[in-house]
Predict the structure of 6-phosphogluconolactonase.
Amino acid sequence: MAKLTERFFDSKEQMTEALSALLKEQLSSGIEQDGNAVLMVSGGSSPAPAYKYLANLEFSWEKVSVAMVDERWVDVTHEKSNESFINSTLLQNHAANANFVTMKNSATSAIEGQAECEKAYAELKTADVTILGMGPDGHTASLFPHAEGLKIGLESTGKVCAINAIESDVTGSITERMSLTLKGIADSRKVVLLISGEAKKAVYENAKTEGSEYDIPLRAVLNHPDIDLTVFWSP
Ligand SMILES: O=C(O)[C@H](O)[C@@H](O)[C@H](O)[C@H](O)COP(=O)(O)O
């Protein structure tokens, strides 16, 4: 089982404040320890206010590498690109000085781009903090239930994997993705899971029950013995 800490807040503002403080603390201690820090980021609405706060924070951003937790296999100009979202929320003002490591490359498919992405991620040290979201289907990163590539995502010793999700209301039409593997998620001093609303709280509680990691991939994170996980929930 992961080492689990649960922090439930009364408002999104309180969650953002606590999350921002945790991110700053993890990055500072990474720099103190290794001279540089690695932050793994997800898309989604929950982390956006903390990203905006960090963007305006005076910090040694030139010592920070920011890398994606997952990405749709689309160009950065695409409206659904997570990289574009990170550019417009986090990599602004002071944080624009951070070194950004993309998941997307010029390969025509995620599976063809996997080796190049793995090479880029292999050069990164253990992350200081990894931010995960969770979908209503129990996916986290782009580890979607029963997706093509999920077995590799759960079992590989590599950091990244190509995923082709089963199309649903949650995935939308773009099902081809690159994702951190479970091993890639676990290669982090701290993992943070952000959950908003009662409906997703129920999904999270269900993920904590015994069952298949293929049905609810978040279970694999909760079950992982080496993950230090803090769950942030707000209404
Ligand atoms: O790539 C995606 O499909 C989304 O980014 C997704 O994985 C998101 O992180 C979660 O659905 C949490 O979203 P919220 O932060 O909006 O709850």
In short: Strands lie at 3-8, 37-41, 64-68, 70-72, 99-101, 129-132, 160-164, 176-180, 191-196, 228-234. Residues 48 and 59 are 18 Å apart (CA to CA).
